[in-house]
Amino acid sequence: MSKDRIRSSFENKTWQEIKVKDSWQIFKVMSEFVDGFEKLAKIGPCVSIFGSARTDEADPNYSMTVEIAKLLAMKGYGVISGGGPGIMEAANKGAYEVGGKSVGLNIDLPFEQFHNKYIDRDKLLEFKYFFVRKVMFMKYSQGYIVMPGGFGTMDELFEAITLIQTGKIARFPIVLVGSEYWTGLLEWIEKVMLAHGNISPEDLKLYRVVDTAEEAAEHIFRFYDKYLLKPNF
């Protein structure tokens, strides 16, 4: 057999093996969806809090996140975080300290992300796939509190805005905490994206910027009072 035929046979076999592996991966994805749906459906109304995993406990944003989570939990909302350190830990800590429901959607990463100690043991979910994890945030959150963060925080923020903008999910409150942090981005959205006609003026109303824990929590509460809606159970 010629070298070309041997190479072709090897490449075809490898490609077939890859396709088989991809097909079986579907069942891994399905198992994460099933586990997430079954656990989160039992928890009740929740608000997700996002922000940097790198935020130190001494950072004012950490303590503000703890306070926001406490206010939400005392009002009956569960608090969902990404399950890790930093802002995620602060969110779970606030809910935990007042006896609220503390949920963590942890992601398996090679060199970081370990779940924090403030998550209720029966409300800790581990994910391999980012996209499955994001579906859980969207499906089971009554609102988003977005603290200063990096690329992951931006990803979750713009995912929510896009789904609401396109009508793929019902509108819910999105609160950006810290005007100093968010002003540059929001000015760019208005002066560049809006000016180029890539979004509409109504899209600027899909989020609210606040500077205190009380304002952040109150916006969530007022949203459901205003629209005469009840959090989903």
UniProtKB/TrEMBL annotation:
GO biological process: cytokinin biosynthetic process
UniProt cross-references to InterPro entries, sorted A to Z: LOG (IPR005269), LOG_fam (IPR031100), LOG_family_nucleotidases (IPR052341)
EC number(s) recorded for this UniProt protein: 3.2.2.n1
Pfam families, per the entry: Lysine_decarbox
Keywords tagged on the record: Cytokinin biosynthesis, Hydrolase
An MF annotation (GO) of this entry: AMP nucleosidase activity
Descriptive protein name: Cytokinin riboside 5'-monophosphate phosphoribohydrolase
Organism: Candidatus Sphingobacterium stercoripullorum
